[in-house]
Amino acid sequence: MNFLSHFYFERQNSNDYMVMGVVLPDLIKNADKDWNLNPQKDEYLFRDVPDYAALLSGWKRHLEVDRLFHSSVFFKEQTAILKQLILPALQTGPVKPFFLAHIGLELILDHLLLTQNKVNTALFYQQLAGAHTESLTGFLKYAGLTDQQRFAQFLDNFISNEYLFSYEKIENITYALNRICMRLWLNPFAEKQQEILTLKLEEFKQQLDKHGFMTIFDQIEEELAGQSF
Q: Which domain holds residue 17?
């Protein structure tokens, strides 16, 4: 799941460090895809400092939400549907249909949460800013992050740009997918392919909304309720 989808499960959580923790794995990977942190493997390092413990708890919730999402029938069915829809946009070029369907589904879910006011996106950014402190730096030091300055600059930009608000428009979802694919392939889409992709994403969004996209959030929320982190 993407940023706003993870935030959905913490939408009533007033602990800024928990909110930061639930998106921190993706923030780390967005800052540098080669950074691999696994603080959950050394929990003893974080137990004695409340802010660290909250960040770790959020981190673990992120991992569990992703596990539940990717193993769900919803994920399998919806990625299969989107894969078929976007095939006309992928007749040429290097992009793999399943990869694009996987990422596309996650971004469309964020789009729906944003446009249907299921989350308070402004509050999301406020809470990230509230957790952008020395406690976060200390947590990441123990977690093994070697370039604190580069990550801090990335996080500053992420918070100040408020990029997720752009997901309100479907064409910006296409733009985001193109940027993600550019990390892996040179010139992933021609302009015409992007136009087709935007049309197919709009079609997919409408069917997803019609068939009740919130069911996956309800399902995961119910499964999270019985777990401690």
A: 3-225
